[in-house]
Amino acid sequence: MKSKEDTRSLAKKRDDYIAWEDYFMSAAYLAAMRSKDPNTQVGCVIVDKEQRIVAAGYNGMPNGIDDDKV
């Protein structure tokens, strides 16, 4: 019977994963898709030094504008 250590040594690390920058840009693009503004969709993510997303957001309609009536 193989131990967990033996099984791990048989698995190879993937090398076709996306870069951190591409991952974060994709997250920002996805956040932008939440915007109801018909002309401008902007998304952002804030990332710490350990490559963790600590905040995400997107633009909304200006204050006082009912986005359901646009």
Automatic annotation (TrEMBL):
Residue stretches making up the CMP/dCMP-type deaminase domain: 19-70
Catalytic EC class: hydrolase
Entry keywords, A to Z: Hydrolase, Nucleotide biosynthesis
Xref: InterPro entries: CMP_dCMP_dom (IPR002125), Cytidine_deaminase-like (IPR016193), dCMP_deaminase-rel (IPR015517)
Coiled-coil regions listed in the entry: none
Cited PROSITE patterns: CYT_DCMP_DEAMINASES_2
GO cellular component annotations of the record: cytoplasm
GO MF assignments: dCMP deaminase activity
EC number: 3.5.4.12
Entries under PANTHER family matching the protein: DEOXYCYTIDYLATE DEAMINASE, DEOXYCYTIDYLATE DEAMINASE-RELATED
Name of the protein in its database record: dCMP deaminase
Lineage: Eukaryota, Metazoa, Ecdysozoa, Arthropoda, Chelicerata
